[in-house]
Amino acid sequence: MRDRIRVCLIGCGRAGMIHAKSYAGLVNGAELAAICDADAKNLAAAQKIVNVRFVYNDYREALKNDEIDAVIVVTPTRFHKDIVCAAANAGKHIFCEKPMASSPEECDEMIESCRKNNVKLQIGFMRRFDKNFKRGREIIDSGVIGPVAMIKSNTYGPSEPKEWMYDIRNNQGPIGEVNSHDLDICRWYAGSEPRRIYAVGNNFRSPEKAAEYPDYYDSCSVTIEFANGVIGVVTGAQYVQYGYDARTEILGTKGIVKVGTQRADSVETVTRDMTIVSDSMDSWRTLFREAYVAEAQAFADSILNDTEPQVTGYDGKIALTMVNAGVRSYLEKRPVDI
Ligand SMILES: NC(=O)c1ccc[n+]([C@@H]2O[C@H](COP(=O)([O-])OP(=O)(O)OC[C@H]3O[C@@H](n4cnc5c(N)ncnc54)[C@H](O)[C@@H]3O)[C@@H](O)[C@H]2O)c1
């Protein structure tokens, strides 16, 4: 192994370009050597932002390049399994965005391909690298709030859904796209595996879509029973319009830890009409900017030091299992055992 890894980004969209910027100068021991996107327009746009030696429109060509040590897979979720398995068979280390794949069976195939080819596999749960979420975990581990009883985690996003997002039979909706982060963080804080899930949801903000997409939901609540008795409650919403809102509470038997705030900073303006005004967090890109760099650094370090990634394929598989059980519970209107 070289003392510096060369990375190829596969998928230069919204999340992909965050990773591109991390590896283009912010990660010690790693460099962005190549980018790949199936869409010529997106590829050209990415080339204007980052300077790389190799550019591909077909990931299979990128995998033939011996100069590339690792790939960062940030395509839409339905392509993750094929790309990850092909990359593992080509001997590349892999960072794969969440949700890991479409089914637990696909996750198993990805994990097995990486094991067989002795390459690293890290999944994109960057909240585990965020300094506030990490501090939450340290406080739990210190014992100061006593054993954890209940975890409440919400993520509400501002953006209007894209047309494909209304079709819940072909994507998992907010439970997958947004709340997979909350489900993973609940499991991380609970220190236990999920046993049963019950989800309810409804469409409040796009009533005009209800006739064409009767299963669409823009708001949901997911209750999780963990094996050690901890109760998780995850709420999700999209198109909330007031900003990006991600907060988690961990209630112990002797105290509570609250992680996250809606505020963008600590600046307040108070005027004589007796109002207090401050800025709202606009986006996950802003809130987790440093966490994305820290997660990229951890991936590079795990390759260079030959250590286990901090968020494994198994973590990705369990989160995906929770997502799929949640969507099934919502559609079938009953609790689902895991
Ligand atoms: N960790 C996070 O916070 C976070 C945030 C957003 C998205 N995501 C995840 O990242 C993934 C991508 O989401 P996005 O919002 O960036 O999507 P996007 O649509 O903005 O970008 C996807 C890109 O992949 C390209 N692409 C599609 N098929 C390809 C293929 N076969 N080979 C190469 N390129 C291909 C598309 O042309 C597009 O440029 C999803 O799995 C999503 O859930 C994670």
Name some characteristics of this structure.
6-stranded parallel β-sheet, Dihydrodipicolinate Reductase, domain 2, 2 domains, binds nicotinamide-adenine-dinucleotide, 11 helices
Broad structural category: alpha/beta
CATH fold node name of the largest domain: Dihydrodipicolinate Reductase, domain 2
Query: β content, as a range?
Result: 15-25%
Strand order of the largest sheet: 12-11-7-10-9-8-15
Q: Residue-averaged pLDDT, rounded? A: 96
Work out the number of β strands: 15
CATH A-level architecture of the largest domain: 2-Layer Sandwich
Number of domains: 2
Protein model, in words:
The chain folds into two domains: 5-119, Rossmann fold; 130-287 and 319-337, Dihydrodipicolinate Reductase, domain 2 (2-Layer Sandwich). It has eleven helices and 15 strands. A hairpin with a 3-residue loop joins strand 11 and strand 12. 45% of the residues are buried. It starts with a strand and ends with a strand. Strands 12-11-7-10-9-8-15 form a seven-stranded mixed sheet, with helices on one face. It has a six-stranded parallel sheet with strand order 3-2-1-4-5-6, with helices on both faces. A two-stranded antiparallel ribbon has the order 13-14. It is an alpha/beta fold and 338 residues long. Helix 4 (80-89) runs parallel beside helix 5. The chain binds nicotinamide-adenine-dinucleotide. The site of nicotinamide-adenine-dinucleotide has 25 residues, from helix 1.
